[in-house]
Each structure stands twice: as C-alpha cells, then as structure tokens.
Amino acid sequence: MGSGTKVGKVRGLGSAKSGVHHWVAQRFTAIGNALLVSWLIAGLVMLPSHDHGAVAGWLAQPIVAVPMMLMIVSVFYHIRLGLQVLIEDYVHDDGLKFAVLVLLTFYAIGAGAVCLFSVAKLAFAGGPL
Amino acid sequence: MAQSRPRPLSPHLTIWRWGPHMLISILHRVTGDGLAIVGGLGLTWWLFAAASGPADYATFQYYVWRADEADLAGLIANYVSRIVLIGLSWAFFQHLFSGLRHLVMDMGAGYELKTNRTWSLVVMAAAVIATIALWAYIFTRGAH
C-alpha cells in the first residue's frame, strides 16, 4: 500500500494518515456500546413501570444519567464511523459523497446533542418521582 | 492506451455459492445500518419525549405501545412499533455477537474454514435465541 508518491500526496491521492484512527475508534466505541447498550436494555426491562414518572425518575439518578450520557456519545460516534464506511462503499460521486457525509455528521452530532440535553435536563431538574 | 475490451472486475456476490460467512458479513452491515438510523432516531425520540414532560411522553407511549382499543390507526402503529422493536433487538444482538466475532478475528484467530463457518452459524443462532429469550421475558412478565 505505502503512502503514495509525492505528486500523489499533493493531489490528495496518498494515504490520508487517518485510517488507523478510524479503525481503532470504531473498535473502542464498539466495546463501549457492547457494555452500555446491554446495560440500558437490562435496565429498561427491569423497570417496574414505563410511565413517564418511572422512566424520568430512573434517568434522573446520577448512577443512570452518567452511563446513559457515555452510551449516547459512544453510540453516536460509532454511528458516525459505521455509516461513513457504508457511504464510502456505495456513493461514488464526489459531490454527492461530500453532501451525504455532511448530512451524516449533522445527524450524528445533532441527534447525540438532543439525547445528551434530554438526559441532562432530566438529571438536573431532578425528574418527577 | 485504448482498451479493446473492458478490464476484468473482481468477482462479486452473484458468482459465489452463498455460505454462512457471507450471510453473517452482510447481516453485520444491514443490522448496523438499521440500528444507526432506526435505532438512533428511536432513542432520540424516546429521550426527547421523556425530557419534554408527561404529556409528550404519553403521546410517545400511545403510538409505540398502548393505543386505545377503539383507535384503529393507533393499534396499527402499535403493531408496527412492536415489529420494529423486536427487529431492533434482534439487530442489536446480531450486530453485538457478530461484532465480538470480528474482535476475535481482528486478533488473527478464527480464519480456518471450518472454524469460521461454525462460529458464523453459532453467532446467528445465538442472536435469534437471545431475541426470543428477551421478548419471552418481557411478554410473560407483563408489558407496561
């Protein structure tokens, strides 16, 4: 593979030197997701009720809100990395690829922000219970 | 430099006889993308509804789980959402177990033909079993 010729690098055809970081980050977030999403599913299944009071009160506890926020970051980071690979495999038009990657980034960061804010609001407001 | 005929392409899906290793590979991608889009939006909707207060959360719950008996559209939404939720849970287990298999393969293990085939089948079976176990537990316990 190598890192390309000098002129190739100038034209943007050489190694971008960021592939390893993507690969490693995908695996770190995968391990985070394996632990934290499993924890969320177990927690949700074991809740005695799924009405607003029970769910909001559960999410408001520090011992739940913190892992929940960590899960949100890990999940949306992993979503950003995984869908990027899908797009790079199937979208070959440069302009369209750029547009879809922008859209993906906005989705991952935007939805992640909504989720983080929602948990923070419940946690800091104390939540009904 | 003019080419007299098209350059050969590497063989693609249509030319191979399907095996578990191919199925598990494409399932990893399909379940990952499904979780990323449907699961990501669902998680966002759920948390935003919870943070918006009891009235908004009740609307979320109404369409996802318990519409009025008389509301046909609501009941249809409930059925669709249950199928989506069961599908998402299967996708999660499939992607999780398949991902663990990938972590093992990242270490260079499990590439022998028989081993690879066996673990592909084990992973897919385990995902189905875990999904059935989860929903059997939820439904026997009584849904809320």
TrEMBL record, chain A:
Q: Which cofactor is recorded for it?
A: heme
GO biological process: what's one of them?
tricarboxylic acid cycle
Quick check: keyword Transmembrane in the entry?
yes
Membrane topology, from the record: Multi-pass membrane protein
- Is Electron transport tagged as a keyword? yes
What does the annotation say about its assembly with partners? Part of an enzyme complex containing four subunits: a flavoprotein, an iron-sulfur protein, plus two membrane-anchoring proteins, SdhC and SdhD.
Please state what the protein is called: Succinate dehydrogenase hydrophobic membrane anchor subunit
What's the source species for this entry?
Answer: Sphingobium nicotianae
TrEMBL record, chain B:
Could you confirm whether the keyword Transmembrane helix appears in this record? yes
Q: Does the keyword Transmembrane apply?
A: yes
Q: Which domain of life is it from?
A: Bacteria
Keyword line:
Heme, Iron, Membrane, Metal-binding, Transmembrane, Transmembrane helix
Can you tell me which family this protein belongs to?
Belongs to the cytochrome b560 family.
**CC annotations in GO:** membrane
Question: Which NCBIfam families does the entry link to?
Answer: succ_dehyd_cytB
Gene3D superfamilies reported for this sequence: Fumarate reductase/succinate dehydrogenase, transmembrane subunit
Q: What terms describe the molecular function in GO for this protein?
A: electron transfer activity; metal ion binding
The record's subcellular locations are: Membrane
What is the membrane topology noted in the UniProt record heading this document? Multi-pass membrane protein
Q: How does it assemble?
A: Part of an enzyme complex containing four subunits: a flavoprotein, an iron-sulfur protein, plus two membrane-anchoring proteins, SdhC and SdhD. The complex can form homotrimers.
Protein's organism: Sphingobium nicotianae
Task performed by this protein: Membrane-anchoring subunit of succinate dehydrogenase (SDH).
Q: Which CDD domains match?
A: SQR_TypeC_SdhC
Q: Where are the transmembrane segments?
A: 35-55, 75-97, 118-138
Query: What name is this protein filed under?
Result: Succinate dehydrogenase cytochrome b556 subunit
